[in-house]
Amino acid sequence: MRTPLLPMPVEVPVGAVLPYAGPINACTRSALAAQGWLFCDGAQVSAVTYPALYALIGPLYGTPVTQGDPPATLFYLPDYRGAFLRGVNQDATRPPDGKGLRDPDADTRLSARYGSSGQGEGNQGNSVGSQQLDAFQKHEHRYTQPQQTSEVPGDQAPPVQLGLATQPADTDGVVAAKGGDTPRAEAETRPLNVYVNFIIKAQATVLAPNAAAVAVCQNLKDCWGAAGSETCKGGGGTSS
User: Fold this and answer.
1) Helix/strand/coil (H/E/C) assignment for every residue in 156-192
2) Is residue 194 classed as helix, strand or coil in its secondary structure?
């Protein structure tokens, strides 16, 4: 008789980021915080409450600030809302010839909290925490250039140059291959994607469940809905 395999304990390091399939609202924030997880929304959190995470990321996502008496240090969480995550390029090059970085614009990446000038707080360039704005790769299309033509109306007459008039106009269509599907033209270039919330492991210690949250949101369905509209806050979702 085989001995059944015992479950292995899973150690999730502080600073690990995971996609979270549930909504983020007052109910789920309390439940996640009790398990040591925070929502990656760029919020300020206390270095006293989350010393391990502060020791790990410190100013990477914005310069820590102090407030209160005695002063307490607050630092910024990463903000992954509405963004795709990308591995730091470091020195990785493009296959197969190894010429150029996989991210050719790695050195010009913006800081984690950038302003209109492109400057801001936090890491920038080829470093964790930096970010890029959306872009479309440079390219060009072949086209036929109109040429001015001339005609000779008779044997004795000089050539007559036929003028070529052009008038600028906005396009009202999109380029599509003949017989292909209708292209989806939108405000950004993107692949098929699904929304998730990203959460970060902020402390290793698992706390006792938040008694107030448990009392208000006893049914998990109470946590359904957008922030501020879940049933335990007076609307949205489904309760039973």
Assistant:
1) CCCCEEECCCCCCCCCCCCCCCCCCCCCCCCCCCCCC
2) coil
